[in-house]
Amino acid sequence: MMLGLGAYPFQTDPKPGLGPTKSVPEENGIVHDGSPTEQSEETYKDTHSFETIHNINIFEVEFSSSMGSTMKNWNMTVQWWIATYIHRKAPFKNRNLRMFTTLLVSAFWHGVAPGYYLTFLCVPLTVMAEVRMEKAIKPYLSPKLCYFYDWFSWFFHYRSMEYLGCGFMLLQLAPCLKAWKSMYFIGHFVLVAFILIPFLIPKKHGSDKESQKKLS
Q1: Distance of CA 208 to the CA centre of its chain
Q2: Helix, strand counts (H, E) of the chain
């Protein structure tokens, strides 16, 4: 950072991994980029952003209520690269297949230890469970109850992170499976249950007024 790596003027609205998203504004045909030749060193520091190499949004990581949101705010520069060059370019139209491929690459990026793959390849189950439960339950809840539901989701989300994190901590296949077995694979059973429960919840139809409005 002292060498200016990833430093761009605030006007360019830089994003993690991507860099500038806007061109530097010009005044009377002169580009003012806040360089040291134009401004003092103190002003230079104030007018440049290091957002391009901003890698972790701690608050969002700690308080996100979903796996997807947590992953987007962790290792953000790498997430941008993987999303841009792997997820969006994967030769599959199916969203779940693209997510599986993306997480497979993420696991390989971390290393070849089996634990990485055990963790990352369970993430699609977590995302699927979160999305399905939210779509099935939230339409029945008031805004106040939705607030409590989000905290409920946050609690289970972090329990799943702790459970799946065994792969990162133990790395090898046998110790990881032994750890999960000692917990009776409860995390996997809960994820599968959360995926299946929405099948038992009838979809909530719109109110009569909304139905009439759509028909009119």
Answers
A1: 37
A2: 12, 4
Helix (H, G, I), strand (E, B) or coil at 207: coil
Q: What is the DSSP string of 48-62?
A: EE-GGG----HHHHH
- Alpha carbon distance 10, 50 (integer Å): 9
Residue 54 structure tokens: 């901003």
pLDDT in tens, 82-127: 888 988 888 888 888 888 898 999 999 899 999 999 999 899 899 9
**Which one-letter amino acid corresponds to residue 116?**
Y
* Cβ neighbours, 10 Å, residue 160: 22
Contact 157, 70 (CB under 8 A): yes
Q: Do 96 and 128 contact (CB within 8 A), yes or no?
A: yes
Task: Tell me how far the alpha carbon of residue 95 is from its chain's centroid.
Answer: 15
Give the rounded percent of residues in the chain with a pLDDT score beyond 70.
Answer: 82
pLDDT tens per residue across span 130-171: 999 999 999 998 999 999 999 999 999 999 999 999 999 999
Phi and psi angles of residue 132, each rounded to the nearest 5 degrees, phi first: -65, -40
Q: Are 208 and 143 in contact (CB under 8 A)?
A: no
Give dist(CA 119, CA 180) in Å, integer: 12
